[in-house]
C-alpha cells in the first residue's frame, strides 16, 4: 500500500496528464495537499483493518481454536466510532479551511473572463473587451482572475484540474470561480458535467502567460481580425462571407456576425478544432469544414457544400486568422 | 428434491398431509402464473434481477472495450451514451434493489418463522411489475430509444428541447412503473416483519438481516416519493409543456437535483443496507458465534437510515450553493461514516473471537470488507467539499461508487448466493469452482476500478465516450479494460457454479453450515408451508438453542401446526406475543392481470395513446375492486345487529 | 371450511379468536405505510412549490397573475374537512354491528366528496381563463398540486362507493369484520388532512409575504 502510494505520487508528477496532483495554482495546490493528508490517513486505517483481518485469518482458523463468546463492545465503539470520530472532526476542520481558501477569490480590479458553455464548446469573452474567442482563455501568471460562468443550453462544468476544482454552469443562473497559475504554461480543462452526445469533446485550454503577453491577447481580442494578405486568402474570405459560414460564425471586422457557432476571428492560432476533437492543422480543418460529423458526430455544424476549388482557399484564410 | 428435515415428530403424518394439501401448488401453467408462494416469487426476483445484471454488465463490457484505447470508434457517442445510462439505471434500479429484495422475499418469512409474507398476492403483483418495468426499459435499447441522460438524468439536458424522442420518456415512465413494485415490496416487508414473526420473537430476537430489510423498506417508503415526484414533473415538462425545470418560465433546474438526491443518497443505503444485513447473517455460520454487539449493529442501521436523508447536497457540491449549506451537509456526510465504522469493527471483532470456517461465502465477506472499507475512505473524502469539487464527475468518483456498490452490495450478494444456494435449490455448490470465481472476481474488480482513482485524479472526466491520446490516460484505461474481462470471467464462473449445483450438486441437508437463524431448521428447499410446526422462539439464535428447536419437534402444539387451513400466526409488533391465526390467500391470477393492466397503461402513456391509458386505468381500478371484495359470511360470524 | 360447521363452529373458541381483532391487523399497518409514502409524495410536491417560489423571488404569483381568492377554497374546505365525520360515525357503527350507520355515513361522505370535486371543477373553469398549466411554473404547480389532490379525492370516493356497494349486500361487514372499512377510512382522513396543507400552500401562502 505504501509502495502504491509512492507510485501514485510518481506517476502523478510525470507524464502530460492534467493531473490534480501536479497543481500549478493556488486552488488546486490546496486540494492536492488535502488529498495527501487524506491519503495517508486512509493508508494508516486500512493497514489497521487489514492487520486485524489477517490476524483473524491466521490465528482464528485452526480447528482447535476455541470460540470466545464475549461482547467486546468497548473495542467496537472505540475502534469503530471513537477513533474515526476524532479523525473525521480533524479532517473536517481542515476541509473547511480549504473550502474557505477556495472561496477567497480575486479583488474587484482583477480581470473578469466570461465563459459561456454551449453544446459542445466554450465561448470566451473578457469583460470590457468587445470580442470573443472559443475553447481557449488566457490568464496572467501570478494573478487571480475572475471567471464568470453561464450556459447557453444545458449544464456543463468548468474544470481545470491543475488550477482549480470544478464549478458547474447552471441554466438560468450565473456562477463565479477564479483561476490562478503560479507558473506559465498551458493547462488542459474539460467539461465535467455530462452534457449530451459530444460531452467527450468539450475541452479547453487555459494559457498562463506573463502580464505583457496577456495584455497583448486582450488587445488582439478587441481589434478586428487580420485582413487577408494573399489572393488565396482573399478568395477564401469571399467564400466565407458568401457561403453559409457567416450565418453561424463571426469574424470581427468582416460582415460575418453569426452567433450560433464559435467566433473564428483568431481560429488560426487555436490549439485544436472542435473543442479538443482534432489538432488544428490544414488537413483536419478541411475535413472539419467538409463534414465535421465524421470528426465529432452529433455536433451542430452540418456538412458544408464547398467546391473542391474553394476548400484550399477557405483553409488558407482561416489559418491566417491569428 | 430434498432430504427430510430434522425428525419431525412435532406434526403428525395427517397434519403434514393436510398442510401439503392446503399449501402445495400442483405444477401447471396456471399455477406458474398464479403462484403467491414467497419462495417461488423470491426465486423469480433473483433470476430476473440476475438477468438484468447480465444485460447491464454486458453494456459495461462494451463500454470498457470502447475505452481500452484513446480515440476508439467501436461505439458511436449516441450508442455509448445509451449504454452508460442503461448500465447505471439497470444496475441500481433493476439489479441491486430487486436482487436484495429477492433474498428478502425468500428469506424474511423463513427467518421470522412464518408461512408467507403478510400480503402474498401483493408480493406476486410486485414481482410482475418489476419484471414488466425492467422489460419496458430494456426493450427500448434495440430500437436506439433507450434513456441517454445518465442515471441521474439532469435537466435541462433531459428536457424535450435538448433530448427529443422517447429516450427520457422511457426513463421517467419506467422508473415510475418500477416504483410501484418497490413500494409494494417495502410495505410488505415492514408489515410482515412487524406482524408475522413467530411467537416469542421479540424485537431483540429479530435476525440482523430482517432488521436490515426493514430499515431499507422504511427508507424506500420515505425516499422513493421524491424520485416519483421528480420523474412525474419531468414527464409533464416533456410531454405537456409544464415549466417545473424551465428557468425561462419561473422553473429551476436545481429542483431536479435536490429531489433526485433526496431520493438518491438514501438509495445508496437502500442498496447497501440489506447487503450489510447479509454479511451479518453469513458471519455467525462461519465464525461459530453471533455477531458482536447486536444492539449496536441495529442502532447503526437505524442511524444510517435516518442520517441518510440529511446528506443529499454532497452530490451538489460543485453547483455553487451557499457555503453555509456546504458546511452543514459536509458535516452530516462525514458523520454518516461512523455507523458503518461500528458495523465493520463489530464484524472484525466477531471474526477475531470466533473460529473461522473459510468457505466461499466467508471469502466473499472478506472481499466485501477489503473493498467496502476502501470505498468508505474515498466516501469520507467526498464529504469534504473542497476535495469533492476537484474529483467529482471525474473517474475518481466512478472508482469510489464502484468500490462502495460492488464492495457493499455485489460481494455480499455473491456471498448470499453461495450461502443460501443449498436452501433455495436444495443442492450444494462446487467449493473449488466457487474459490476460483472469488479470486478471479476479486482480482478483476480491483484491477478494473483501482486505476480509475488514478486517472480520475489525472483529470479524466466521467461519461466520455472517448478520450484523446495526449493526457496519457490510455495505459491505465487498458488496465481497467483487462480487469473488467477478468471480473466478467469470475462472474461467469459464479453462473456456471449455480447451474452446476442445480443440475449436479449434492443434495443439501437442512442445515449444511450450522447456521443460527430459523431458515436452517427446516427442509432444503423448504416445503410450501415452510415449517410443519411454527417455532416458539426463545433466543436470538433459535437454531442454536434447544428450547426453540424442540418447540418444533417434541414441544409442538396444535396452535402452531395450524393444519386446518392455509394459516399462519399473527403476533404483536414489539414482543412477538401471539395474537391470532390468520387465513392466507390462495393462488390467484389477479396480481398478473393487474400488473399487465399497468404495463398497458405505461406503454400507452409512452406512445401517447391516451384513450388506451384511460381504459387500462379502469381495468386497474376494477381489478383492485374485485381483488379486495369482501367474501360473504354469515351474519353470526360477522357480528351484525341491524 | 370447518369440519364441524354451522353455528357451533362460528362461535367456538377458535373461531372467535380468529375473528376478534386483537392488536393492529396487517391490513392496518399496510394502509398506514401506504399513507406514509403518499404523504411524503405530497410533502415533496409542496416542498417543490416553496422551492420554486423562493428561488424565483419577486412577486408571487409571478408574471402579473393575481393571487387566488379565498371564498371558494374556504367553501371547499368547509365541505371536505367535515366529510371525515360521517366516516368516523359509520366506522363506529359497524364496530357495533350496525349496518345502517355504515351505509348512511358512507352515503353522506360520498355526497360531500362529490360536492368538493364539483367545486374543484368550477374553480378550474375560472382559473383556466387566467392561466393554464403551460403558462409558467406557477401555473404548472397550481394545477399539478391541486389536480393530484383532486385525483386522490377521486380515488377516496371510489373506495367509499365501493364500500357502500359492498355494504348494501348482506354478509360483508360486521362487528368482527370491518378491516376494509377502517382502512378506507384512514385513507379518506388522509385525503382530508392533505387538503389543509394544500389550502395553506396554494391559497393562503401567496398572501403571506
UniProtKB/TrEMBL annotation, chain B:
The chain crosses the membrane at residues 45-63, 83-112, 124-145, 170-194, 206-227, 268-286, 293-314, 326-350, 362-387, 399-421, 433-458, 478-499, 587-606, 612-629. GO terms for molecular function: cytochrome-c oxidase activity; heme binding; metal ion binding. GO terms for cellular component: plasma membrane. Its EC number is 7.1.1.9. The keyword Heme applies. Pathway: Energy metabolism; oxidative phosphorylation. GO terms for biological process: electron transport coupled proton transport; oxidative phosphorylation; respiratory electron transport chain. It catalyses: 4 Fe(II)-[cytochrome c] + O2 + 8 H(+)(in) = 4 Fe(III)-[cytochrome c] + 2 H2O + 4 H(+)(out). It is found in: Cell membrane. Residues 26-538 form the Cytochrome oxidase subunit I profile domain. It is an enzyme of class 7 (translocase). Pfam families: COX1 (PF00115). Keywords: Cell membrane, Copper, Electron transport, Heme, Iron, Membrane, Metal-binding, Respiratory chain, Translocase, Transmembrane, Transmembrane helix, Transport. It comes from the Bacteria. InterPro entries: Cyt_c_oxase-like_su1_dom, Cyt_c_oxase-like_su1_sf, Cyt_C_Oxase_1, Cyt_c_Oxase_su1_BS, Cyt_c_oxidase_su1_bac. It is a multi-pass membrane protein. Cytochrome c oxidase is the component of the respiratory chain that catalyzes the reduction of oxygen to water. Subunits 1-3 form the functional core of the enzyme complex. CO I is the catalytic subunit of the enzyme. Electrons originating in cytochrome c are transferred via the copper A center of subunit 2 and heme A of subunit 1 to the bimetallic center formed by heme A3 and copper B. Belongs to the heme-copper respiratory oxidase family. This is Cytochrome c oxidase subunit 1. It comes from Micromonospora craterilacus. The gene is ctaD.
From TrEMBL, chain C:
It is a multi-pass membrane protein. Its EC number is 7.1.1.9. One of its GO terms (molecular function) is cytochrome-c oxidase activity. CDD domains: Heme_Cu_Oxidase_III_like. Coiled coil: none annotated. Residues 29-207 form the Heme-copper oxidase subunit III family profile domain. Its main location: membrane. Pfam families: COX3 (PF00510). It is found in: Cell membrane; Membrane. Belongs to the cytochrome c oxidase subunit 3 family. PANTHER family: CYTOCHROME C OXIDASE SUBUNIT 3, CYTOCHROME C OXIDASE SUBUNIT III. This is cytochrome-c oxidase. It comes from Micromonospora craterilacus.
